[in-house]
Amino acid sequence: MGKGIGLPVLVLAAVSALAADAPHAAAASSIEAPDGATPPADSAPPSANGGSASSAGTTDAPTPPKSAAPRTAHDVLREAREVLAPIKDKSMRVTMRVGDDTGNTRVKTLRGYEKHEAGDRKVLWTFESPLELQGTGFLAWQNESEADTLWIYFPGQRRVRRVPPSIRRENFQGSMFTYEDLIAVFFLDFDGTHRLDGTQTCGDGDCFVVDSALEGGVFAYDRLRTWIDVESRLPRRVEFFADDLLKVMTVSDVRTIDGIPSIVRVEMTSPNDGFVTRVELDEITYNQGLDDRLFTIEALSRHGK
Questions:
Q1: Gyration radius of the chain over CA positions
Q2: Residue 154: what are its φ and ψ, rounded to 5°?
Q3: Average pLDDT of the chain to the nearest whole number
Q4: CA 228, CA 201: separation in Å to the nearest integer?
Q5: In whole angstroms, what is the distance from residue 203 CA to residue 49 CA?
Q6: Assigned architecture for domain 16-43+48-303
Q7: Among 289, 237, 243, 296, which Cα is nearest to 267's?
Q8: Domain ranges of the chain
Q9: pLDDT, mean of residues 288-299
Q10: Strand pairing partners for 193?
Q11: What's the CA gap between 156 and 269, in Å, rounded?
Q12: 211, 207, 229, 231: which is closest to 221 by C-alpha?
């Protein structure tokens, strides 16, 4: 798969139905990893509503990285992917509010860690709440030339399980986000045929609009339509299509943290029902020199205890 600007967030994957039903998940897992083992060595656009991001070095507006208008869709995507190039590692707290069509909302909190180097991306997520998910963790190793390698830790079983890459298409813990939304689409990490459809008003500014026909069989979607801020080069809206429009992702708050434009609030909605998922990121820190040992199976089980 193409290598984009890397996962923050959130997103960014894998516990969903597996964590909700650990025994069933264990049976469905493809490979069981021995305790203490380590992964192989190489394996209508939105408006900004403001809000606070509880992170050091935070300011209210992103620093525009570019001024000249790109000439093609590939220029827009390349510059968007370059915005977060200075990020070598990242840690954050994630709050996810999952609302259903009856108006009920479930709140989940996680800790997220990422590391980016030489075409590789490593992601570790651990749930802090609710109580039934506390300690459940997810580890992903992504390489631009290989299939993703994913592991899940279930504290009730005290066992790490390796899961198949197909889990990327599953919904993340009952939310509107799939795993691939969080670890790929959210960061423009996808290949396909891209077309620039000019600019449109985007909140209090303008956005480039890029229409992308995705590679067949790679994602759960056929096409994406993305609004990318002319100034910050961050995505502000993404529409997801199969035959019809499936859902819409809207970025509602962007901040500059330690000199890096950062998305700190985003939501996913469905045009066909009342389901909505809102995600907030805070306590964001960059480039703290996270140790590679944090992104191992041993660390995954240790963080889950």
A1: 18
A2: -105, 110
A3: 78
A4: 11
A5: 9
A6: Clam (2.50)
A7: 237
A8: 16-43+48-303
A9: 94
A10: 213
A11: 32
A12: 211
